[in-house]
Structure prediction request, 443 residues.
Amino acid sequence: MKKLLACLLAGALFAASVHAQQLQAIDSIAAVVDEDVVLRSELDRAVNNILAQYAGRNDQLPPRAILERQVLERLVLVKLQAARAASTGVRVTDQEVDQSIAGIAQQNRVGVDQLREQLARDGTSFEDFRGSIRDELLSQRLRQRFAQTRIAISDAEVDAAVAAQANAGAQYHLAHILVALPEGVTADQIALGQKKIDGIKALLDKGEMDFNAAAVRYSDSPNALEGGDLGWRSLDEIPAAFAQIMRNLKPGEVTAPLRGPSGFQLLKLVEVRDASQAGPSLVTQYHARHILVRVTPTMTDAQAKAKADTARARIAGGADFAEVAKQESEDLNSQSRGGELGWFGLDDFGADFGTVVANLRDGEVSQPIRTPVGWHVIERLGSRQQDVGSDNRRAQVREQIGRRKLEEEWNRYLLELRGEAYVEVRGADGAPVTDAASDASGG
Prediction:
């Protein structure tokens, strides 16, 4: 849940104002993307968000023109994913957008009204922000559908990965720089890609640029603006062709250029840790169900509280909790299951929610409680100590393999999507420009 909210927040702030409501007279088009456009105001706000994230570390960013090109490319991909999602029947409801915004506000320890005021101070209208959240949700749904239809994991793969983890507990923190090659690549394109990746490696070897800055400036990967960071991975999460190379690297070292499915890569081993000695990882999990009444522009806090009080009174009077949840709860994920939330950790639904559940007895129903999402009535059904390091290992390994496969296939899919689209980049004067990417060798 937290990772989802963090992802939504980063994407929303990055792509703010995708649906600009009031355009300034000086606004212009930064890029035409099929039947849509990226406005200059959108690009400027997105670049300013990146500059704010790198406050005090501006030396890690490329020159403004190159940064704009990187950011514009991301905005183009957001547009393309949202359009593809819409054209294939992927939908996001207003209620789901409201729920995501409430979660973002909660993560920032503010209310929705305070978030609205903060956006206004930053020069972003709330409707623009809602539009960017909707596009991010559409992109996520598209990615989920892609995973369901394109990614398959066999039991044999999981067995092999579990065995590999038992024999080698090392985990590797990696970063990469990608020089992408298109489908049906020509010999000239391969040669140009090889020249560019060799030039980047030469800069790193001479110490003229650190790896993170080179990734921001030159990488074609979607995570370029994060310095190419790939996070922690076990060997089964690293493509087999690269796994042996990782074993032979020392922290801080960078590989020679490698040819992979998406193009040429440089991999950096940031650090290594040993996870093989980790014993049982016991956590307390809770089983509960709830009724949620949301606070929205059409449902005031007082009205939502009154509705939650009524639901609580019905349950106290003998009504079945599940039936009341089906009738009254506004949590679309659990409503049809009678408010059933399954087993979850203390902080999975926020600290306030978790504290109430932890203080209830099994079978006890809470008084209505307020969270940034709205008013909840909660029934605790049980608790347990769960060894997530043992009982869930196969599920975790399956998820790891799925993430690795999805990353490889999704990046290729985005390259295909971008290659098929009509994209016309325009300069500050509105005239079309050639978006010729310079390589690190100076060519």
